[in-house]
Design brief:
With 155 residues, this protein is α+β, with helices and mostly antiparallel strands. The protein has helices spanning 3-11, 27-37, 44-47, 108-120, 135-143, 145-154; strands spanning 52-56, 60-64, 67-70, 75-77, 87-88, 126-130. The protein is 36% helix and 15% strand. β3 and β4 (75-77) form a beta hairpin.
Length: 155
């Protein structure tokens, strides 16, 4: 069986010849492991014999060393303990009001281009597209956990 066939078999509640798996590491752990194993980061999925290849549709950019601004304009400080996700620098919604929230632009062309390039990769794996932050995670990143929980209680 191919890796893709194993995943498809498992998600249809049948028994594949081997258990499909997917190993992921944080940025710092990935650097350390790749250095130890003598491999490049892009070779890790094959080295780990991962069965799933993921395409993330999250956007954003590094605005200065250690600071990342996501597609909703939330700034994540990655200079402390959490260098992968980071900690929100300032919550954008001071009140429980979405009227000032600017939604990010989504273009079908960009999604199409990224998807085609991803699907053309020769890596034998089950292909999966994902959005990393959905409703709850996005809400706390904009409002803050304490404020969000109070908002949920009050509203």
């Amino acid at each position: 069986m191919t890796r893709r066939e194993r995943v498809k078999t498992a998600i249809t509640h049948q028994t594949p010849d081997k258990c499909p798996h997917n190993v992921e590491l944080t940025g710092e752990a990935m650097k350390g492991f790749c250095s130890f194993a003598g491999i490049k980061k892009e070779d890790f999925p094959g080295f780990a014999e991962n069965h799933i290849d993921k395409l993330s549709f999250n956007g954003g950019r590094e605005i200065k060393p250690g600071y990342f601004q996501d597609e909703f304009s939330v700034i994540w400080n990655r200079t402390g303990i959490d260098k992968d996700i980071g900690v929100v620098e300032k919550y954008l919604l001071e009140e429980a009001d979405l009227s000032s929230l600017a939604m990010p632009e989504i273009t079908a062309e960009e999604i199409g281009e990224r998807s085609r390039a991803f699907l053309a990769k020769p890596f034998d794996a089950f292909k999966l597209a994902k959005i990393g932050m959905l409703l709850f995670e996005r809400a706390w990143s904009l409002r803050g956990m304490e404020n969000l929980l109070v908002d949920m209680y009050e509203e």
